[in-house]
Amino acid sequence: MLKSLIRVAVLVSVCLFAGVAGAQDIKREITKVAGDVYRFQNKFHFSLVTVTNDGIVIVDPINADAASWLKDNLSTITDKPITHLIYSHSHLDHASGGKVFVDAGAKVIAQANAPDAIDGVAVDERFDNTKTLEIGGKTFELTWLGKGHGEDLIAVVVRPENVAFITDAASPKRLPFRDMPRSDIDGWINQVKKIETLDFEIFAPAHGNVGVKADAADARIYMETLRERVLAGLKSGSTVDELAASVKMEEYKDWLSYDNWRELNVRGMARFLKETGQDK
Ligand SMILES: [Zn+2]
Question: Which of 10, 67, 92, 106 has its Cβ near the most Cβ atoms within 10 Å?
Answer without folding.
Answer: 67
